[in-house]
Amino acid sequence: MTAATTITARNNRATHTEGRSPEELRELVSHWGAELELAPAEDIIEWAVATFGERFCITSSMGDAVLADLASKVAPGVDVVFLDTGYHFVETIGTRDAVEATMPVNLLTITPVQSVAEQDAQYGKDLYKTDPDLCCALRKVQPLQQSLASYDAWATGLRRAETHNRVIAPVIGWDAKKQKVKVSPIARWSDEQVERYIAENGVLVNPLVYDGYPSIGCWPCTRRVAPGDDPRSGRWAGTHKTECGIHS
Ligand code: SF4
User: Fold this and answer.
1) DSSP state of 82
2) Domains, the chain, ordered by start
3) 221 assigned ligand-binding residue
4) Does any ligand 1 atom lie closer than 6 A to the CB of residue 128?
5) 136 is in an annotated binding site
6) Ligand 1 atom closest to residue 132's alpha carbon, by position in its atom list
7) Catalytic positions (predicted)?
8) Using CB atoms within 10 A of its CB, is residue 16 exposed (0-12), middle (13-18) or buried (19+)?
9) Given the CA of residue 139, which atom of ligand 1 is nearest to it?
10) Can you point out the beta strands (E) in the chain?
11) Residue 109 and residue 169: Cα distance in Å, rounded?
12) Separation of alpha carbons 64 and 58, rounded Å
């Protein structure tokens, strides 16, 4: 987050620059989690911006810019964290660039400590083949953990409709591993709601979505999905792995 970044909610100008204790954050979750469970996504984001101010960010994997669009309308200049693993499709990087060029957001590209070449040198070539959990830990989980250090709350585009594993994604939850409030404003949205929002608001979408990739991760671990199949079945296809670890 840059010092110049200012986040302004529609109705509240948030000025919280000091972090809250984990106890205070957990208390917010227990109170507001039930209160906002059925609230519109815009209201959930507005609450987060008003509550956490500059200590709130959203994350995006650049499958689409729905969450960034929602958040930037509530809080122009909102921080959007993108993890550049070094293994993204060119279309994903292009979507990131388009979001940065056309939307009122403060886009923050986070990279792992090691380049892919350095990782290959230390752990052996193509760690994603030999130990994908470690590869995700090094290229996703650890960088995100570090990048969230200056925030109290982060928002994700998690949706319960995406996969059975995400059924319990709460709208406002406590991320015990990160000791942060985790906000999922579109957790209750159906696929149809997402499509309608994209069409009505002219939201940027990664072109791979229209090319058989409803869920997009790193190119070595993402495959096309047949129409009607689980949208996330193309991620780590043929392995036991279903999540990268940033949501567990
Ligand atoms: S998704 Fe694949 S390439 Fe990307 S970090 Fe995880 S294991 Fe590595």
Assistant:
1) E
2) 3-210 (3.40.50.620)
3) yes
4) yes
5) yes
6) 7
7) 244 (nucleophile)
8) middle
9) 5
10) 56-59, 78-83, 105-110, 153-155, 172-175, 180-183
11) 25
12) 13
pTM of the model: 0.89
Give residue for tokens 């069409």: 199
Residue 218 assigned to a binding site:
yes
Q: 83: which strand partners?
A: 110
User: Tokens representing 117?
Assistant: 């070449």
Label residues 214-228 b or e (16+ Cβ within 10 Å = b). Answer: bbbbbbebbeebeee
Cα 245 from chain centroid?
Answer: 12
136 lines ligand 1 (CB under 6 A): yes
Q: Dump the DSSP string for 218-244.
A: BGGGB----TTS-GGGGBTTTSS----
Q: What is the pLDDT along the chain (248 residues), one digit of tens a residue?
A: 333 333 333 333 344 567 899 999 999 999 999 999 999 999 999 999 999 999 999 999 999 999 999 999 999 999 999 999 999 999 999 999 999 999 999 999 999 999 999 999 999 999 999 999 999 999 999 999 999 999 999 999 999 887 655 557 899 999 999 999 999 999 999 999 999 999 999 999 999 999 999 889 999 999 898 888 877 787 877 777 777 777 76
Place of tokens 């984001």: 45
